[in-house]
Amino acid sequence: MAQPHGQPPPQGLARCYRHPDRETGIRCTRCERPICPACMIAAPVGYQCPSCVAGGGPGGGPPARAARPRTLAGGVVAADPRMVTGILLGLNLAVFLAVLVVGDRLVTDLGMLGRSLDTRTYAIVGVAEGEWYRMLTSAFLHQQPWHLAFNMLGLWFLGPPLEAALGRVRFLALYLLSALAGSALSYVLAEPNVLSLGASGAIFGLFGATAVLMRRSRQDMRPILVLLAVNLVITFVWPDIAWQAHIGGLVAGGVIALAMVNAPRRGRVAVQAGTCAAVALAIVIACAVRTAELLG
């Protein structure tokens, strides 16, 4: 609820004037009203709110000619900040329904597997045998409804704020690279004949990115840190969880988000793209070394 005029503000961080449920330490450089990451538009100095960019200030006026709406990370401000999140969620649901229709054969063919014998064909299969697609397809596979539900719940709550703050392209890059990093660490550290699947690596990447974004916006980090700690405890206590995927995704998501939200305005795209390329290169090198080890 918005603060009534004339009453003293509540203690703690201010709340975004467009999203009263979100705390923030950032203010528009023109009208000085508090704005959350979803409302931040990069300006020559600091950040401006959508009202000032569209109407020249809170009182209206000619639009700011040089200020094109941009997200905190420099992406284009989208009318629907949940579009990519919704597409990713839909893909996960569609693949889950396909598994229900086709059966476990789809899981065996698309799940994350380093190198093992396929008992149906007696052929050696896995990433080491050139089936690199498993590193990505496994991130959209789920067998159990509860597994799907937990991951999609995390995607739905963490995805939209990140998508709004980063922009669609940057958010998608963060999600996919986190998923690949999780698969890569599983490939390097897990037993090669153990099949793993699920979007958990990507979701942990969103956890890492959310922590970075909240710190950048000077928000209270205790909720996300507690939630992350609980999930890490479950990761290492619950049986049959691919902890490697969780850690790989978490680290990649945090590193990419750091570059996304802290890159200097001059050369920002180069820093962001370079960081994503460096993460991708690290994934490729780690997988190449592991493949040589398994085939050697």
Automatic annotation (TrEMBL):
Keywords: Hydrolase, Membrane, Protease, Transmembrane, Transmembrane helix. It is an enzyme of class 3 (hydrolase). The keyword Membrane applies. GO terms for biological process: proteolysis. Its EC number is 3.4.21.-. Residues 130-261 form the Peptidase S54 rhomboid domain. Gene3D superfamilies: Rhomboid-like (1.20.1540.10). The chain crosses the membrane at residues 83-103, 171-189, 195-214, 221-239, 245-263, 270-292. It is a multi-pass membrane protein. The keyword Secreted does not apply. It comes from the Bacteria. This is Rhomboid family intramembrane serine protease. It comes from Streptomyces boetiae.
